[in-house]
Design brief:
- It is a single chain.
- The chain is built from 13 helices and twelve strands.
- By secondary structure, it is of the alpha/beta class.
- It is globular, with a radius of gyration of 22 Å.
- α1 runs parallel beside α13.
- The structure holds glyoxylic acid.
- Glyoxylic acid binds next to loops.
């Protein structure tokens, strides 16, 4: 019997490819640039599995119509905002993500963004490298930042990654940790010593506002101009979720108008972001190219986990990480 065809949209480690190849025939689009959208879709007619990244292929009604044999779309990402879960459910297509394995890696990066923005790490790194560190030339205000330790962090979206951030903040930096979430988590509040706040109250009280919610229809542009208006003028806004969870224009205005002191961003409304995005010219904004989970070990673990989900789905078994909306 011939093996099912699987389309891979991103580069994955050799070992993971080999594992998949034991169970499936791997195919790739010849080259992103040479194919039109229509040609790409036509390529899907006999594909039974898709292995993609969260920002990669949109598994929507149009794609599903062109992929009548598709049985599973496996994301190498914890986010799955590229899935139209209603359309997938209607066609019986499974969808999986890669939770757990990236929690600590992403939480580390969030702390890095907090520290880098509050202590002006990237701004002052540039100053040193540009030869501007000269005796007697720099004033206190050129150098002084804000303490992270003992400050208050408000985490919006208290999932597994939110918890990993809370632990670091609480036990590493003696911070007061507040959180806002769709549902309250009394056991976690008790265990970690963190406190629930309504969104508006969290924004008023926090020195660092960390956005860590999945992107859904409810969280699209969750943070808008009126929310920045509630924040402390000294607050830092950190986003390592998805760019679309914040109104980016409102964030730019908030920074231009001094409503907040700075930001640390791993994600943008459009990725890659436009080189002319005003955020990139702001010294008080730390910008990264969506690297939350980007360590070799974590990316390997994510790719292998996605491959296991994919193969399970192709074999007709229940994949371990079937996304919530697609569970019966
Ligand atoms: C990365 O952004 C992910 O969703 O894993």
């Amino acid at each position: 019997m011939s093996k099912p065809k699987v389309l891979i949209s991103s580069k994955i480690p050799q070992e993971v490819e080999q594992y998949i190849a034991e169970h499936a025939e791997l195919v790739r689009w010849p080259s992103d640039r040479t194919l039109s959208h229509e040609q790409k879709l036509a390529f899907l007619h006999d594909v039974e599995g898709l292995l993609t990244t969260g920002g990669g292929i949109a598994v929507n009604e149009e794609l599903l119509q062109h992929a009548p044999k598709l049985r599973i779309a496996s994301n190498i990402a914890v986010g799955y905002n590229n899935f139209d879960t209603a359309a997938m459910k209607a066609r019986g297509v499974l969808g999986t993500n890669t939770p757990h394995v990236l929690d600590d890696t992403v939480a580390d990066l969030v702390l890095a963004l907090m520290l880098a923005s509050a202590r002006r790490v990237t701004e002052l790194d540039q100053l040193v490298k540009q030869g501007k560190w000269q005796r007697g030339k720099l004033k206190d205000e050129d150098l002084f930042g804000l303490d992270v330790h003992h400050a208050t962090v408000g985490i919006i979206g208290m999932g597994r990654i939110g918890e990993a951030i809370a632990k670091r903040a609480k036990f590493g930096f003696d911070m007061d940790v507040l959180y806002y979430n769709r549902s309250r988590k009394p056991e976690m509040e008790e265990r970690l010593g963190v406190s629930y706040r309504a969104l508006e109250q969290l924004l008023r009280e926090s020195d660092f506002v960390v956005l860590m919610t999945p992107l859904t229809s409810e969280t699209t542009r969750l943070i808008r101009k009126e929310h920045f208006e509630l924040m402390k003028r000294t607050a830092f806004f950190i986003n390592a979720s998805r760019g679309q969870t914040v109104d980016e224009r409102a964030l730019i205005e908030a920074l231009q108008e001094g409503l907040i002191r700075g930001a640390g961003l791993d994600v943008f409304e459009q990725e890659p972001t436009d080189p002319n995005n005003p955020l990139l010219a702001m010294p008080n904004v730390v910008t990264l190219p969506h690297i939350g989970s980007a360590t070799a070990k974590t990316r390997f673990d994510m790719a292998m986990r996605a491959a296991k989900n994919l193969v399970a789905g192709l074999k007709g078994e229940a994949p371990p990480d079937l996304v919530g909306e697609l569970r019966e």
